[in-house]
Amino acid sequence: PDDPVTPTETSGAKVSVVTDDGFNSFHIYAFPVMKEHGIRGTHFIHTDWVDKRGWNEGPDNHMDSTRLKELANEGHELGSHAKEHPPSGVFADYSNSELEDQLSGSKARLEGFGFDVEGFAPPGGSFDDDVVEITKQHYSYLRTIEQGINLPGYDVFRLKCYRVDNNTTLEQLDAWVKEAADKNGWVVLLYHRFSDDPEKLQDPAMTFVSPSDFDKQMSYLADSGATVEPMGEILEVWSPSEVKEPSDPGNGNGSGRRSLPPPETIDDTGGSASSGSDGCSAGGDATSGAALLL
C-alpha cells in the first residue's frame, strides 16, 4: 500500500471524478466511498445496457435505472457513453446516420429516466470531426481519453483526462492535482471498474481499482482543498478563457468545495433531476483520438 500523502499547494486545482460504462462495481464499491467523503462525480453510461435482461446483476454487469437514479439523487451527473460499444470496436467508424442515432438516442434514453444530460464520452475514446460536429448538436461537452490537464483555453469538445488504474499511486495523484493548481487547471480522473479480487486487480487491461485504494484517493481529494465537482458543474463556473468566481466560494469546512443546494429527487416514474450538468457550449473542433480504453 502507498504511504499517506499530505496534500500541499493544491487549493487552486479543479478536479472531477468520472467513470465510463456504468459498471455495477462502481455502485457496490465506489459510490459509498464517494458519499462518505462528500464527493460527487460524472458517469458516462451505455444506455442499451440499462435495464437489459441479464445485464444488470453482479459487479461485472451494468447499473440499472434504479441505481442510476440513486446516483442522480445524490447529486452525481449522468452523461452518455453512446448506446453501446460499436461492433468494430472503433466508434468513429460509424456512418453519420449511425452516429446521429448513437448520440441522440442515448441522450433521449437518459432524459427519459429524468436526467439532465450535457456530456458525451465516445466509446474507446474514438472520435473524428464528424463525431465532434454531431456531438455539438446534442451536448455541451465531449470528454476524450487524451491524457493531460485541461488548461485555460481548453476546448470543451476535446476535454482531457488521466486514467486511474490499479497501478496509480497517491504520489501520482498528488502530482496531477499539484500541476492543476500550479497551472490554474482542471484534472479529470477516469475510472472504469472496481474489485477487491486480487486476480482481477492484476488484469492486464488494468481497468480495476481496489476499494481500499479508491478510499485513499477520495480521502486525499477531500482533504486537498481542491474544488472537486462533476464535470458539468466545473464548466458552469470555468469558461475556456477564464475562471468565473462562484457566488459561494466555499462551504466553511476547508475543503474548497462550494456549498450547493440538495439535488432534486428523481422517483422511479421519471420526473426531473438536477445533476449539475449545465456545461458551456464553446470551443473549436477536435480531430481524432485513439481507441485506447473500453
Describe this entry's structure for a reader.
By secondary structure, this protein is of the alpha/beta class. 29% of the residues lie in helices and 14% in strands. It has eight helices and ten strands. It has helices spanning 24-36, 65-73, 96-112, 129-138, 170-182, 198-201, 211-223, 231-237, and strands at 14-21, 42-45, 77-80, 119-120, 141-147, 159-163, 186-191, 193-194, 208-209, 227-228. The strands form two sheets. Strands 1, 2, 3, 4, 5, 6, 7 and 10 form an eight-stranded parallel beta sheet that branches. The protein has a two-stranded parallel ribbon with strand order 8-9. The two termini are 27 Å apart. Residues 243-265 and 268-294 have low confidence and may be disordered.
Strand content: 5-15%
User: What's the SSE pattern?
Assistant: EHEHEHEHEEHEEHEHEH
Kindly report the average pLDDT value: 82
Low-confidence spans:
243-265, 268-294
Helix content: 25-40%
Number of helices: 8
Gyration radius over CA: 18 Å
The outline comes out as globular
Sheet with most strands: 8 strands, parallel
Tell me the span between the first and last alpha carbons. 27 Å
The oligomeric state is single chain
Tell me briefly what this model is:
It is built from 8 helices and 10 strands.
List keywords for this structure.
8 helices, disordered C terminus, 8-stranded parallel β-sheet, 294 residues, 10 strands, two-stranded parallel sheet, alpha/beta, globular, 29% helix
Write the SSE topology:
Layout lengths: L13 E8 L2 H13 L5 E4 L19 H9 L3 E4 L15 H17 L6 E2 L8 H10 L2 E7 L11 E5 L6 H13 L3 E6 L1 E2 L3 H4 L6 E2 L1 H13 L3 E2 L2 H7 L57
Helix pairs in contact: 1-7, 3-4
